[in-house]
Amino acid sequence: QAKKAGRDTLRFFNPRMQEVINARISLEGDLRKALEGLQFRLYYQIQVDSSHHRFGVEALIRWIHPDRGLVNPAQFIPLAEESGLILPIGHWVLETACIQLKLWQEDVLMRDLVLAVNISAVQFHQVDFVAQVQSLVQHHAINPARLKLEITESSLLKNIENAITTMTALKDIGVGFSLDDFGTGYSSLQYLKRLPISQLKIDQSFVRDIVTDSSDKAIVCAIIAMAHSLNLDVIAEGVETEEQRQFLLDKGCSHYQGHLFSKPLPITEFDALLSQVERLKNE
Ligand code: C2E
Ligand code: MG
Ligand code: MG
Ligand code: MG
């Protein structure tokens, strides 16, 4: 009896809180097993220009959980970041992307594709990040100019000097950079000017209501103008409708990614989509 009471006093007061913590512990345990269990997949989403020509692709991680089924990154990337598991997961993502790039590089139809890979702040700020990327590029014999790393503003601002050094070193070997979710962070023009990036990616939260919301319109126009004046490419994410695409095109943004063109797809479906597009073009 006393033993039971003692144990109970150690429990969290709020049973809801205990539930949340238990769920988290169990998810973290599963996440640890997911890499060895080969439960991660990369999905691929096409990027197109104003003449609907595909020029790039973004790799997006998915977790195929044995019981929960398909788990989206929003449900596990934050936990992976807090627990440090993002380091082995992020390395797996980069390596899988390099292996895929190598396959595309050997295919006449695919070899001009640029593959964008999302990089977490913790991963990016590791002391040996440059060496990791360099060794993957060499080991898999890929053309570094076909690899683009997507970094967010907030991860740069964690240590701007280190970010500049890392990006400059990678740019020197030919790797490109895109600033993801642009507009949601706090980059100053001063920093933007110093960063060796080649692309700004307009966050989908601004694209969603672009046709109707006047402040979203203004923000998007400002981002496009800024990109042009800094000589950067600009791509809009989350483009779902022809009206959104037309608005963006009118304002000078000619690169798009979103469900209007395709959802992120598993590799076999993605390859099938691309070869279909190529076949139509050559007919
Ligand atoms: P992100 O890099 O900004 O990726 C864009 C997200 O928008 C993706 O969500 C994509 O599936 C989704 N999306 C694309 N087109 C549309 C559209 O037309 N409408 C809507 N509503 N959504 C669209 P996803 O795949 O769930 O990824 C969410 C975030 O998780 C990513 O945002 C990125 O920050 C992170 N993430 C994904 N894969 C990786 C990865 O391999 N490593 C790391 N560190 N983070 C990743
Ligand atoms: Mg991204
Ligand atoms: Mg984004
Ligand atoms: Mg995002």
Automatic annotation (TrEMBL):
Residues 24-278 form the EAL domain. Transmembrane segments: none annotated. It comes from the Bacteria. This is Diguanylate cyclase (GGDEF)-like protein. It comes from Glaciimonas immobilis.
